[in-house]
TrEMBL record:
Gene3D superfamilies: Cytidine Deaminase, domain 2. GO terms for cellular component: cytosol. PANTHER family: CYTIDINE DEAMINASE (PTHR11644). GO terms for molecular function: cytidine deaminase activity; zinc ion binding. Transmembrane segments: none annotated. CDD domains: cytidine_deaminase. This is Cytidine deaminase. Belongs to the cytidine and deoxycytidylate deaminase family. It comes from Knoellia koreensis.
Length: 140
């Protein structure tokens, strides 16, 4: 039986383990969960600093080592340390492109943007794929 969006958000929250490194960057302050097309759930946490690894990418490393890189849903979360409120975060542009490149079928995956708010990855990626317009005419 498939899990709900709320349960996937809770799985992402379980990946949170925030702590600050000596250089001031954060580790595990963003958590992600994704559902593979076969129903398996994978989670990951962010690694900050100048060599950043996003939480979504961390979850994808588990996914691709276990099954296909195709996903059904994905969500990332962050808990505000000031008030403890959990927030759903949209994937950054790099993660959106990362998901598309791993499998074009991921354009149909649902990205959870809030408790009652989802969009397909394609809707969050304008002009997915190669787009090039000629600036000059053919010189032939």
């Amino acid at each position: 039986m498939p899990i709900t969006d709320e349960e996937l958000i809770a799985a992402a929250a379980q990946a949170l383990n925030p702590r600050q490194l000596a250089d001031g960057s954060w580790v595990a302050d963003v958590g992600a969960a994704l559902e593979a097309v076969d129903g398996q759930i994978f989670t990951g946490a962010s690694i900050g600093g100048y060599l950043a690894v996003c939480a979504e990418q961390s979850a994808f490393t588990q996914l691709v080592s276990t099954t296909s890189p195709r996903i059904r849903r994905v969500v990332a979360v962050w808990r505000d340390p000031a008030d403890g409120v959990l927030h759903v975060l949209p994937p950054c542009g790099r993660c959106r492109e990362f998901m598309r490149v791993l499998d074009q079928a991921n354009l149909d995956a649902q990205v959870i943007l809030g408790p009652d708010h989802t969009r397909s990855l394609a809707e969050l990626l304008p002009l997915p794929g190669w787009h090039a317009e000629a600036v000059e005419r053919s010189r032939g």
